[in-house]
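REQUEST ID: PR-0412
SUBMITTED BY: lab tech R.K.
PRIORITY: routine
TASK: structure prediction, single protein chain
INPUT:
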Amino acid sequence: MSEQNVQIVADMYGAFARGDVPSVLAVLDPKVEWWAAENFIYDAGNPYIGPESVLHNVFMRIGSDWDGFASIPAEILDAGDTVVSHGYYSGIYRKNGKHARAQFAHFFTFREGKIVRFQQYTDTAQFRQLFG
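STATUS: complete
OUTPUT:
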């Protein structure tokens, strides 16, 4: 099952890159807990519970705040019921035209083929500086 979880995460990044948000949401458990990094620009509702909350409070905000936002994993690691990835975010913040390139680590916890918990870690200071 853990190899399948790694593939689900890889496919999720691919769907996000294509703008296929319904496919991303489809792998989330109905009661998923989505945790943004503390002090991140989108952490005000931590945790976001359920795919609709993730859509409205994270993905739609990314879509309205950024041009060319990308989440590119450098590596996706199998840790049993948890999948860990690390890589870089990049994009241009629309309000000031500044470019971001920030490291991230993502932890995805699975149960029965669905993501039940997501935890993000990233360079929160860089994002706060961009947002002003």
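NOTES: The chain has one domain: 2-131.
REVIEWED BY: pending
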